[in-house]
Specification:
The chain is an alpha/beta fold and 263 residues long. The chain has a single domain, classed as Glycerol-3-phosphate (1)-acyltransferase, CATH 3.40.1130. It contains eight helices and seven strands.
């Protein structure tokens, strides 16, 4: 009669260990990479810095996700993104249910640019690697658009979350106009990506050290690819409606505020 409670207790403790190990490993990887990237930012020519910075981010995140899978913390089905490798410049536009979303995409597409919060780029322990990779700040709309268009015209992919932040209300928050403005000015298509997960872990409002039930399953699917827009306002409305319809019946999607069964 005591076996079931003890088994649940041990599982809970193992989940906590995996949570802290995963968060700690991400922090250590970011810190070590920043120690290397900080001097390289000033030494390497811009073109080589971009290539090295983005390549190392790709390999580091790939290693990180493989480690999470190996310890049974997560299951990942991200292979749909592999079809985008080698394709011409485009905006990769996923929904944004959790903090780990950028890691999922960056681990599958080497050389992709990314729009990031300025607070992360300015962080002394985490931002050096992002600065070496020339990821794009989001604190000035005009500068963000200018740098994004320039990067796309060099043939790179650009990761841009159309909501601008994690989804506050499922299935997706309001789509912002910046995705349409960048796509129009650069004349590139917008490839939607549908991120599905079976846990609200690291969704908006989830405390960082609150332990979820593991393993957590993440699945990425390619959605519709939109042609470069001519009318930004109409495009944004169409993109918003598409995401809401496509995610409404997603099998793994959950409400960010839903309490887990074992809480």
């Amino acid at each position: 009669m005591r076996a079931v409670p003890m088994q649940g207790y041990l599982r809970s403790k193992w989940d906590v260990l995996r949570l802290y190990f995963g968060l700690g490993m991400l922090g250590v990887l970011g810190f070590l990479w920043s120690l290397l990237a900080a001097p390289l930012y000033y030494v390497l020519p811009r073109r080589f810095g971009i290539a090295l910075g983005r390549s190392l981010v790709y390999h580091a995140f790939r290693f990180y996700l493989r480690t999470l899978a190996a310890i049974g913390a997560c299951r990942f089905d991200l292979s749909a993104l592999d079809a985008l490798r080698g394709e011409p410049a485009m905006i990769i536009a996923p929904n944004h249910p959790s903090l780990i979303d950028a890691v999922l995409v960056l681990s599958r597409l080497p050389g992709i640019a990314c729009i990031m919060k300025a607070s992360i780029l300015d962080n002394p322990s985490l931002g050096a690697g992002a600065r070496l990779a020339r990821y794009i700040r989001n604190d000035s709309l005009r500068n963000m658009i200018t740098l994004s268009v320039a990067d796309l015209r060099h043939g790179h992919h650009l990761l841009l979350f159309p909501e601008g932040t994690r989804s506050a209300h499922p299935p997706i928050g309001p789509v912002r106009g910046s995705v349409g403005l960048i796509a129009k000015q650069a004349q590139v298509p917008v490839q939607t990506v549908l991120i599905e997960m079976d846990s609200p872990f690291l969704a908006k409002g989830w405390p960082l050290f609150r332990c979820p039930r593991m393993p957590i399953t993440y699945r990425l699917r390619l959605g519709r690819r939109f042609a470069p827009p001519q009318d930004v306002q109409s495009f944004v409305a169409e993109l918003d409606a598409y995401f809401n319809n496509a995610l409404a019946d997603a099998g793994l999607s959950v409400s960010p505020t839903r309490a887990e069964d074992d809480d």
